[in-house]
């Protein structure tokens, strides 16, 4: 059964690597629903967060292929229950529309959004939450003539208590860099 | 343009020498033990070629006739020697001409390092003359690629390139070097790469999995081992035989696994896949435990996956974790180098034999002998058949030559009938199926294995895809025996047209040139055989000739290769006629 999976990929900070990762999705004709590249808590290491809609089996196969890339330190597949995740959305409206006696103030307050900027001709509203939340606000604001709308890629942290730093240290000390044939 | 570079520790030691990037590059090759390179010069790689002028006593550069020839030669070299093959090309078309071979090396896990020149860094991304984004183009077909824009990066990157190409599951690496980096002066010192924190080529053998596998194997009544190229890459032929002999398990080989086990081995039961032997295909769907070693369940081996080995417990040994459960879901995954895994299995399985089970394979062989082989090998009338030529070649070379086959019917016939005796004798394009592979790969194989006779077996179609490499063979005096099996058809496609497209031979018949005249034009001795009675004498002459020689054998025009598992069919539905 297809559902949403979040892939969290730890990589060396290297140009071209994102291209390398997206090729894996392109080959299988899988659409990336959302993508975010950010620094991680460990210096020099990036965290790439991707959201795809697929079966668990396919997500696992893709993850294995991402993990295989030379400059990838780790790749993990999560379903929504295994992570805390958020997206941020920005909504631009005309100031005169908003000030024109509409009940937009209540709307903003009730939806947990906030006003980021008020200019003479436009107002920017910001809302953080799951896609369903930002979409709900989108629908509510639409009648007021949205001038511009944008939503960020999903960012997520796992519920696991494992520290990235420890994980990287283990990789650095791994003996899997050379072949050892032992006696059994 | 902001060009990101790899952060490298700069080591200035007492041995540090001041030199150009080009000189440094060649010194890196020497430090990695490289003595043969295949290449073709051009604008953006000229500083390297200029430096090469002074290294001709240490680096043997073979000037090919097309960059595709350079990469296939490097592949052939790597496949027979087990060392990293190296090729050199210029930017733009030089690089794009390498791509087919790089893709081939990627699919067949061949260790090669390709070095390409690139326009100066200030011209990157400007559509400069012969500038192309080779990083982008090569990304899906390389194990790793990197663009060097500063001379000081060269030693560390080259060390990485060789480490990545040869370790773990080997593969092609492409290093693109801008022209300014080739010219730039730098302080040279070399430290081989032994570790990359994001790359772990040798997984730790999980003894729990070994134990689980041993349990399955010990309890098996009808076990079968599938031998892939992983066995050859891990140099695990002895460990494989020791394991199979102790547990008494029949062994079958994939196309690239051929020559890992001698065909004379009493437990060897043949060749797997679409045109493989009858027994191992049929029995795959009858065995109770399937032990796949260093193979990736390619569709040409499995046929219809939904009806492949469903009755069996599958043990999959592979060094690449992404191969586990990719095509066939396994019960016991052993993510490991084949040598380590086989050694562990060998130590722990109980001594056993499966004589009755083995006899079932022999019964299958009899049927195949009667239905296929007798007709293939011992025809008395009609045109010469490919199989009888290969059988004669096999007999006269005692199965000891390095055989480099191209792609198509002759490749399948060679794989079926050449009696390989030891490792690294079989060089062919498996995963990508690259026509034109054999002639240049044979040149490389010859450079990589001087003690063995190297024979290229090629069809009339494939021969003309890289025929210009006859010039390389001529100029460099490479002793390659070239056998062209000519049916004046693209035989494999024609066979499919006959079987699956109602005999509509759409653009598969070839009007061929006089191959002897072409060879002679390149100073290569050439003979041609059209009749069965001439074959023996011609073969003798072919094999005993000093230096390169072409033998063209005109074979049956519309011969079909059997057995055959048609696309989409199950291995159980293998056709004998």
Would you mind describing this structure in some detail?
Chain A has 184 residues and is α+β, with helices and mostly antiparallel strands. Chain A has two domains: 3-82, Alpha-Beta Plaits (2-Layer Sandwich), CATH 3.30.70.260; 85-151, ACT-like. Chain A, domain 2 (Alpha-Beta Plaits). In chain A, 30% of the residues lie in helices and 39% in strands. In chain A, strands 5, 6, 7, 8 and 9 form a five-stranded antiparallel sheet that branches. Chain A has a four-stranded antiparallel sheet with strand order 2-3-1-4, covered by helices on one side. In chain A, strand 2 and strand 3 form a beta hairpin. The radius of gyration of chain A is 21 Å and the shape is elongated. The termini of chain A are far apart. Chain B is an alpha/beta fold. Chain B folds into three domains: 17-188, Thiamin diphosphate (ThDP)-binding fold, Pyr/PP domains (Rossmann fold, 3-Layer(aba) Sandwich); 207-361, TPP-binding domain (Rossmann fold), CATH 3.40.50; 379-554, Thiamin diphosphate (ThDP)-binding fold, Pyr/PP domains (Rossmann fold). In chain B, 38% of the residues lie in helices and 17% in strands. Chain B has 22 helices and 20 strands. A six-stranded parallel sheet of chain B has the order 3-2-4-5-7-6, sandwiched between helices. A six-stranded parallel sheet of chain B has the order 11-10-9-12-13-14, sandwiched between helices. In chain B, strands 16-15-17-18-20-19 form a six-stranded parallel sheet, with helices on both faces. In chain B, helix 15 (386-396) packs across helix 16 and helix 15 packs parallel to helix 22 (532-544). The mean pLDDT of chain B is 96.
């Amino acid at each position: 059964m297809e559902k949403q999976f979040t892939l969290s990929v730890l990589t060396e900070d290297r140009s071209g690597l994102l291209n390398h990762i997206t090729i894996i999705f392109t080959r299988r004709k899988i659409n990336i629903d959302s993508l975010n590249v950010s620094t991680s808590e460990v210096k020099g290491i990036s965290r790439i967060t991707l959201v795809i809609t697929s079966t668990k089996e396919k997500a696992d196969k893709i993850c294995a292929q991402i993990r295989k890339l030379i400059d990838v330190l780790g790749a993990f597949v999560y379903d929504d229950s295994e992570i805390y995740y958020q997206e941020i959305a920005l909504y631009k409206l005309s100031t005169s529309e908003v000030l024109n006696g509409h009940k937009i103030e209540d709307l903003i307050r009730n939806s947990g959004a906030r006003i980021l900027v008020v200019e003479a001709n436009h107002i920017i509203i910001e809302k953080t939450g799951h896609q369903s939340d930002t979409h709900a606000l989108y629908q509510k604001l639409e009648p007021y003539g949205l001038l511009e709308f944008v939503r960020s890629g999903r960012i997520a942290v796992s519920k696991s208590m494992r520290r990235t730093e420890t994980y990287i240290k283990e990789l650095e000390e791994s003996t899997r860099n050379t072949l050892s044939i032992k006696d059994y | 343009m902001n060009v990101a570079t790899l952060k490298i520790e700069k080591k200035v030691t007492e041995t540090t020498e001041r030199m150009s990037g080009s000189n440094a590059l060649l010194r890196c090759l020497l430090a990695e033990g490289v003595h043969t390179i295949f290449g073709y010069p051009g604008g953006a790689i000229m500083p390297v070629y200029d430096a090469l002028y002074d290294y001709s006593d240490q680096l043997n550069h073979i000037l090919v006739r097309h960059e595709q020839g350079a990469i296939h030669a490097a592949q052939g070299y790597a496949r027979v020697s087990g060392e990293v093959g190296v090729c050199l090309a210029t930017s733009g078309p030089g690089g794009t001409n390498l791509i087919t071979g790089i893709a081939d090396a990627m699919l067949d896990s061949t260790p090669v390092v390709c070095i390409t020149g690139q326009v100066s860094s200030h011209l990157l991304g400007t559509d400069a003359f012969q500038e192309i984004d080779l990083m982008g183009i090569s990304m899906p077909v390389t194990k790793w690629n990197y663009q060097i824009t500063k001379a000081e990066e060269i030693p560390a990157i080259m060390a990485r390139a060789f480490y990545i190409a040869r370790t773990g599951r080997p593969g092609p690496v492409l290093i693109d070097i801008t022209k300014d980096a080739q010219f730039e002066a730098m302080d040279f010192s070399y430290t081989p790469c032994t570790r990359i924190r994001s790359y772990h080529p040798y997984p730790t053998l999980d003894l729990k999995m070994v134990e689980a596998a041993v349990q399955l194997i010990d309890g098996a009544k009808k076990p079968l081992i599938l031998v892939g190229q992983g066995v050859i890459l891990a140099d695990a032929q002895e460990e494989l035989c020791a394991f199979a002999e102790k547990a008494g398990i029949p062994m079958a080989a994939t196309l690239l696994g051929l020559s890992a086990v001698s065909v004379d081995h009493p437990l060897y039961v043949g060749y797997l896949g679409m045109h493989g032997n009858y027994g191992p295909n049929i029995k795959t769907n009858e065995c109770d435990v399937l032990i796949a070693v260093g193979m990736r369940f390619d569709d040409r081996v499995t046929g219809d996956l939904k009806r492949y080995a469903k009755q069996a417990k599958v043990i999959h040994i592979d060094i690449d974790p992404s191969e586990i459960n990719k095509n066939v879901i396994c019960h016991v995954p052993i993510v490991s180098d084949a040598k380590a895994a086989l050694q562990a299995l060998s130590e722990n399985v109980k001594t056993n034999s499966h004589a009755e089970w083995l006899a079932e394979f022999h019964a299958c062989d009899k049927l195949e002998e009667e239905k296929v082989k007798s007709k293939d090998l011992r025809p008395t009338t009609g045109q010469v058949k490919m199989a009888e030529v290969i059988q004669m070649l096999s007999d006269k070379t005692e199965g000891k030559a390095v055989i480099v086959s191209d792609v198509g019917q002759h490749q399948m016939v060679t794989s079926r009938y050449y009696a390989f005796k030891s490792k690294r004798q079989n060089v062919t394009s498996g995963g990508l199926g690259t026509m034109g592979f054999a002639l240049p790969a044979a040149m490389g194989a010859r450079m990589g294995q001087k003690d063995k006779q190297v024979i290229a077996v090629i069809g009339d179609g494939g021969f003309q895809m890289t025929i210009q490499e006859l010039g390389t063979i001529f100029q460099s005096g490479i002793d390659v025996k070239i056998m062209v099996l000519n049916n004046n058809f693209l035989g494999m496609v024609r066979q499919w047209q006959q079987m699956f497209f109602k005999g509509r031979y759409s653009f598969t018949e070839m009007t061929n040139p006089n191959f002897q005249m072409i060879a002679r034009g390149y100073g290569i001795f050439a003979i041609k055989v059209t009749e069965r009675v001439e074959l023996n004498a011609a073969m003798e002459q072919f094999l005993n000739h000093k230096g390169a020689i072409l033998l063209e054998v005109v074979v049956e025009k519309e011969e079909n290769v059997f057995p055959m598992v048609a696309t989409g069919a199950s291995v159980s539905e293998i056709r004998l006629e």
